[in-house]
Amino acid sequence: MTKLYRTHKIRLYPTYEQEIYFKKACGIKRFTYNWALNEWNKEYEKYIKNKKSCKAPNHRILRDRFTKLKNNKEELSFINEVSKYAFSNAFEDLGNSFKRLFNKQGKYPKFKSKKRSKDSFREDAATKFSIKVKDYSLFIPKWQKKPIKLAERLRYPNGRIKSCTISRTADIWFTSILVELDKQPKDELKRYKKTKDKIGIDLGIKTYATLSNGKKIKIKNKMKLRLKRLDRKVNVLQEVLSKKSKISNNREKVKTKLSRCYYKIKCIKEDFLHKKSQHLVRKYNSICMEDLTLKNMMKNHKLAKSLQESMFRTFIDYVDYKSKRKHNVILILADSKYPSTQLCSGCGNRKIGKDKMKLKDREYICTKCGLIIDRDLNASINLEKLI
Ligand SMILES: [Zn+2]
After folding, report:
1. How far apart are CA 383 and CA 202, in angstroms?
2. Which of 84, 147, 315, 351 could form a disulfide with 137 if both were Cys (CB 3.0 to 4.6 A apart)?
């Protein structure tokens, strides 16, 4: 039987001691990762020079060597102050990074720095009892007696917890709990009722999304205003930051404020995208959208900023994964070469050459059949035709 996996990211409210523990575990993970990468580089150099007598580096062998080292050296005893997963997962991560590199999916791993790298560490569930969630409490190794407070309950109470990653964004701590399920949760199935409706969706700059049934998805002025305010705050903080000396305490404070702003912006956008994509997948059974790759969008520099801000790519990804969770929902991503803007949704005539629709043209006027229609609506109807 295939197993299903779901993650639930929940905000944490750690005590002062727990926060110190988290910071320590993140530091140890970083330290171990850098040690492992350094050893890997050295061994790889030797291996390249002499392939016959040297072995290629391996993250498991490095982990075993590190374990011995830390048990024998007094100055490394601090590593035992946190759960063993904090350091052992560093080797796991490094192994995966190299795997991605060899599969040409990733870049050469870099050393982690306190300033640049995101603080995080992962606890794996070695047994059924090592990680537990009860109501609003999270129990992890070393914190079995004093659980960590959660902002909400775990969405999958019947699932088996496989791991939990604890990470920091700005000065807020989160946990991502990975759960294994035997079957799709009932409420998830209920949420996605079967329908027969199909819809074409055109994503645009003026209107966020235009649906082929004439409905529009707009970004509300209130949301725009909130984003604008945060944007202004980011600019001010960046200005302040550029004037602060490199190693002042205040600089760190400004940086935390800045990352809080970025986090808020991200939350506002993601909330919007989740709600809208959820609605679409719930309501329609076949969806067709244009496959907007970042590369295509960036060709037009004027558009780049606003397009990036409207996060089309994330929106498409959300619709994609949500439609996979609902049975029988088909998401068709139209090739970006498909001329949805240039075709007449009435007669199929295609505008070419100097007749082509330009960005400023808001209305599609067909010279063949005389149809006059809103540009975005025309495109969305053309997209629906691909279903
Ligand atoms: Zn026409």
Report:
1. 8
2. 147
pLDDT for the residue 345: 93
* Distance from residue 355's CA to the centre of ligand 1 (Å): 13
Instruction: Give the dihedral sign, CA 29/32/33/34.
Output: positive
Query: Which residue bears the tokens 């088909």?
Result: 330
Q: Ligand 1 is a single-atom ion; what residues have CB below 5 A from it?
A: 344, 346-347, 349, 366, 368-369, 371
Is the CB of residue 109 less than 8 Å from the CB of residue 91?
Answer: no
Nearest 5°: phi and psi at 19?
-65, -40
Q: 123 C-alpha to center of ligand 1: Å?
A: 60
Cα of 207 to ligand 1 centre, how many Å? 23
Q: What is the pLDDT of residue 229?
A: 94
Distance (Å) from CA 208 to ligand 1 centroid: 25
What are the pLDDT digits (tens) for 140-160? 988 999 999 999 999 998 889
Q: Which residue has the tokens 């002062």?
A: 16
Distance 201 CA to ligand 1 centre (A): 20
Is the pLDDT at 187 greater than 80? The verdict is no
Q: How many CA atoms lie within 13 A of 304 on its CB side?
A: 8
User: 363 CA to middle of ligand 1, Å?
Assistant: 13
The token pair at 342 is 């240039």
% the chain with pLDDT above 70: 91
Specify which residues 121 forms β-bridges with: 166
Asked if 129 contacts 140 with a C-beta cutoff of 8 angstroms, the reply is no
- How far apart are alpha carbons 8 and 303 in whole angstroms? 34
**pLDDT over threshold 60, residue 303:** no
Burial 173-202 (b: 16+ CB within 10 A, else e): bebebbbeeeeebeebeeebeeeeebbbbb
The pLDDT-based confidence of 305 (bands split at 50, 70, 90) is: low
pLDDT for position 56: 84
CA of 198 to the centre of ligand 1 (A): 22
